[in-house]
Amino acid sequence: MQINESLFEETTHSPSLIDLVGYENARKVIDFCYIANPYYPTPAMIDELVRALPTLIKTYPSSNPGVNTRHLAQVLHVNPDHLIIGNGATELITDICHSLAADLGVPIPTFGEYIEKIDSGNLRLYPLQRATDYQLDLADYLAWLRQESLQGALIINPHNPTGQLFDLAAMHDFLDKARFLKLVIVDESFIDFAAQVVPSLLHTADRYANLVIVRSMSKHCGVPGLRLGYCYTGNPAMLARLRAVLPTWNVNTLAEFYLSLLPKTDTDYHASRRRVIDDVRWLSGALGAVPGLTAYPTGANFVCFRVDTGQTAREMQRRLLVEHNMYVRDCSNKPGMDAFHIRVASQGRDNDAALVDALPQVLRAGDA
């Protein structure tokens, strides 16, 4: 398969699979790179979206954001007045970094938007160490924030790209001790895959006036193309500032219609995420058994592994794509991470098993 290699140099994210190989070839590739629930939305939901499409594309979205937040709040069991829905989490991350963050401490490696969307003069990087598998120590991080006299901090839980998970007790302990900060961003985009009962801060967020929770619906709801994300805070001043900078109609009609389907399909959603949890547990164990790889523990719907044979992540990514029609995330362009880490999102047991079967072949080819 031919790929447009130059695209990898043109973005700090991963190139779109369609851009890389073309639309027809993309249909033949298993995409382990972009992280999305493979079991949701359900086929019945897709059918409803298809039937409604002719009307939706001729209709303006609602100019009242409360219409959408009520649907979402119903399945999250939170106060809709404390929710803001964005055109993807990236829109909200941009607005939070521009409107709320006087400065921001960011553990790296991390999701690149948090580095790119804040002025470099206001950004302070906290490098995680290869020797400790890029694991974040919350107590050390908090001490560093104090030492640097920072006003803002980021935690991604589970962490991207390693999958490291902090339980609720650890997060509450950190937040209780971090009340001196003006802003704590906790990105919970993968938290729905952490456990059978979701260990989210959503239901205790109102205790912390400096807390903003961010979530991407691309990940847990499986709809990256609809561009849906949301944030939650109990701080009225923060809510007002964020709402003031969002454009009217920032959520399109197709996304709005999708949100309206959530309450009646909530049981299906939770069944889908529990199925993903089972798949990831299998995938993590299977990757850990492949000689030449070290798989990190994960609380997300992906697994990060280190290649220990000397083959680079870039080489492995290209071989998997060209020779096996599989697209994985080369993490070497993430600041703070070395050249030997791959992240793979679970794509169902059969697809995951195919990846595990292909990896020994790719490792042998790298030794040749």
The helix content is 40-55%
Q: What is the CATH level 1 assignment of the largest domain?
A: Alpha Beta
> Which residues form runs of ≥5 with pLDDT under 50?
none
How widely separated are the two ends? Answer: 21 Å
Number of helices: 14
Secondary-structure element order, as H and E?
HHEHHEHEHEHEHEEHEHHHEEHEEEH
Query: What is the average of the pLDDT values?
Result: 94
Radius of gyration: 20 Å
CATH topology of the largest domain: Aspartate Aminotransferase, domain 2
Count of discrete structural domains: 2
For the largest beta-sheet, the strand count, sense and barrel status come to: 5 strands, mixed
Beta content:
15-25%
Widest sheet: strand ordering: 2-8-7-6-5
CATH superfamily of the largest domain: Type I PLP-dependent aspartate aminotransferase-like (Major domain)
Question: How many beta strands in the DSSP annotation?
Answer: 13
